[in-house]
Amino acid sequence: NKTSKVKHCSHQSLFSSCLMSAPEAAAVEDACRKEVEDGVEEDERLQWDKDKEEHSPEGSQQILAPHQVEAPSVEYRIVIPTKGRWRSLREISDSRKDAHDVRPFILVKTLAFLQKQGIPPSLVELWTADAEEAERYTDVLQKDAYWAGGEVQVR
Q1: What values do phi and psi take at 133, rounded to 5?
Q2: How is the chain classified by DSSP, letter by letter?
Q3: Rg over CA atoms, the chain
Q4: pTM here?
Q5: Which of 35, 69, 75, 140 has its CA 20 to 30 A from that of 43?
């Protein structure tokens, strides 16, 4: 299901950052285009075309995650309550493709996603229920150079 940003319509004063499916975005674009063509000046049509090019999902622009946009930064921490995901992927996953994967689930799935999104390890905490779980997660984190030294807390 492809998603794209809602198009900026020159007769509207706001740019919506909502996400919608590609067919929904096309329908919104068609409706806005019709309204614009029915009652605006030529310079507004030119602005529409410029905005369309800048925010086009077909273009080279990619939809950015909130932590990647040029906006005032906000302090945040990512807390992951977890239990047992230090075990191997093959022990936890029902997928056939994971049947022989002995890497820790938390490294392959959860933390790999955060790393791909450019989230620094210093902003991530793993919360466990007891000291034994905390020790297992600490050992697992040491297996990955990016997450080594990550914070594990008993909560």
Answers
A1: -60, -45
A2: --EEEPPP-TT-S-----EEEHHHHHHHHHHHHHHHHHH--HHHHHHHHHHHHHT-TTSS--PPPGGGSSS------EEEE-SSTTSBHHHH---GGGTT--SBHHHHTHHHHHHHTT--GGGEEEEESSHHHHHHHHHHHTTSTTTTT-EEEE-
A3: 23
A4: 0.54
A5: 69
